[in-house]
Design a protein that fits this description.
With 292 residues, this protein is mainly α. It contains eleven helices and two strands. The termini are far apart.
Length: 292
């Protein structure tokens, strides 16, 4: 195990952490503002990957294909999520969490079947443009170019979300609704519109995560299952509704899995879950303050 191998594996782990953060940020936004455990969040991530592949294939070998895919996929998933929220989910906000979990689980099954109907069970792959193929050498280590793009995309998404929630009126209202929705409603704010905005933004981030991961892995049915479990654990270990907690939990997952691959490859998958269990034993409410 030399320094080059450690650095290369660390970059892979950090790029994986950025995908987890983008998806988990959307999930924690929905949990924090609406208090809805959105089980079909992973299905939107998968849908975003398939939409990105479809757009890139339609454009062909043009260098702009990937960027169009990255723009179209989150917009499509945001539209799908917003329609589901306005027509169906908004009628269940007064119900207990078990009812919400069952409903979103049912939607997940429907969305998975829709994806299977539209794209079939065949594996797909999205090839990035030539400018993002190959690797660059940093300190004598060859690092994949697209992984470096992911390392930039994660912080940009985090900064954009922070600016939205802290520097815009809509974002401040969403934060207030997360803390005390009844008081926000008493002040004359249409809480239903706030919920719709937050849900749509969360679905947008799920689709963005799916589009960003498409060039790095096979696009197939079932790619949402493990990510959904990881995202919920990240939200819990970071602190429910806490954006920076989602970032901390994502880094914890990505780095510990990379360390596991270096130290004990056969059980690398178990490393993040073991660390998560240890953290929750010490801090049951998560690393950072929960919004609930």
């Amino acid at each position: 195990m030399d320094a080059a191998a450690v650095l290369g594996q660390l970059v892979v782990g950090l790029s994986r952490a950025m995908i987890l953060f983008i998806v988990s940020a959307g999930l924690t936004l929905i949990l924090g503002v609406l208090r809805v455990p959105n089980v079909f969040h992973g299905s939107l991530y998968m849908l975003g990957a398939f939409v990105a592949w479809t757009v890139a294939e339609a454009v062909g070998s043009h260098p702009a294909g990937l960027w169009l895919a990255l723009a179209a996929a989150p917009l499509v998933t945001a539209a799908v999520g917003l329609v589901l929220e306005r027509l169906l989910l908004s009628r269940l906000y007064h119900r207990e969490h078990l009812m919400l979990i069952l409903f979103t689980f049912g939607v997940m099954l429907v969305l998975n079947d829709v994806v299977k109907l539209l794209w079939g069970p065949t594996y797909r792959s999205l090839v990035p443009p030539p400018s993002l193929q190959g690797a660059v050498t940093v300190l004598g280590v060859a690092l994949p170019k697209f992984n470096l793009v992911l390392l930039v995309a994660g912080p940009l998404v985090g900064l954009s979300l922070w600016l939205f929630t802290h520097r815009t009126r809509a974002g401040r209202i969403a934060r207030a609704a997360a803390t005390d929705r009844d008081m926000v409603a008493v002040l004359g704010v249409d809480v239903s519109r706030v919920f719709g905005m937050a849900f749509g933004l969360g679905c947008f981030l799920a689709g963005l995560g799916g589009a960003l991961v498409a060039p790095t892995t096979s696009i197939t049915l079932g790619m949402d299952h493990s990510l959904l479990i990881d995202s919920f654990l990240i939200v819990i270990v970071g602190g429910l509704g806490n954006l920076w907690g989602a970032l901390a939990g994502s880094l914890l997952f990505g780095i510990t899995q990379s360390v596991g691959l270096l130290v004990w490859p056969q059980f690398a998958v178990a490393f993040p879950y073991a660390v998560t269990a240890a953290v929750l034993l010490v801090r049951p409410t998560g690393l950072l303050r929960s919004a609930w």
